[in-house]
Amino acid sequence: MDAYPVPGAAKYRLFPRKLLMVFALGASLWAVAARADDSTLPDTPTNTPTNTPIAMPIDAPIDAPIEAPADSAKATPAPAFSPQVWLNAGFFSYHFNHAAHYNAANWGIGADVRVSEDFTLSVGEYRNSMRDHSTYATVTWQPLHLGPVRFGATAGAVRGYPDVNHGGWSPMAAPVISIEYGRVGANLIYVPTMRGKVDGCISLQIKIRVW
Fold first, then answer.
1. How many domains does one find in the chain?
2. How confident is residue 2, by pLDDT bands cut at 50, 70 and 90?
3. Whole-number mean pLDDT of the chain?
4. What is the rounded CA–CA span in Å between residue 108 and residue 207?
């Protein structure tokens, strides 16, 4: 079949075929040359230096540490607790039953020994609200600390109140708040009312640290 099978084109029978053959041969040679050029191009080097920082091995020597050593990063431990001794001269009490005319100035002497951050041992004697002699021994637990203020409770035994166990030793417990600043402090104690036995009060105790 002719390349252009149209009437009057017989005298051009071989020309189109030669033209196509030349075009095909030229295209083949161009493709071969293009592949040859691609194969001769240099490969992109993989180790070309760039501006991207290179990760340094962990054990590589460096001039300055990136982070502080583990030992220096730890906070300096707080100093160990030291026992404390506080002395007081009794209480000043506000009684809820004003009609009874209780003694409000409960002078005496007492000592508090703080054996840990939360626990304090106390002993002392004072002139009680009935104007009789009283002795006490207590353990105070104050686990909640808010700056110089401590919250907790005290429990122990007290004697010297005629209406309670005939003046003998009796258990006692009361909430207590302490505030301390330097070597001066105060304890605020709430004594609940026990009907027929104890009229409640709020007692303030001023103390001084001596050791």
1. 2
2. very low
3. 80
4. 12
Q: How far is CA 209 from CA 5, 64, 87, 181, 199, in A?
A: 126, 49, 6, 10, 31
CATH number at residue 173: 2.40.160.20
Does some domain include residue 74?
Answer: no
Which carries the bigger pLDDT value, residue 38 or residue 160? 160
In-domain check, residue 44: no
pTM score, two decimals? 0.62
Which amino acid would we find at residue 28? Answer: S
Q: Is residue 117 part of a domain?
A: yes
Residue 136 belongs to a domain: yes
Strands (E), 147-210: 149-159, 170-181, 184-191, 201-209
Q: Residue type at 38?
A: D
What are the pLDDT digits (tens) for 7-53? 444 444 444 555 556 556 565 656 655 565 555 555 555 555 555 55
Domain residues for 89?
85-209
Can you count the helices (H) and strands (E) in the chain?
2, 8
**Phi (first) and psi of residue 168, to 5 degrees:** -85, -170
* Same-domain check for residues 101 and 170: yes
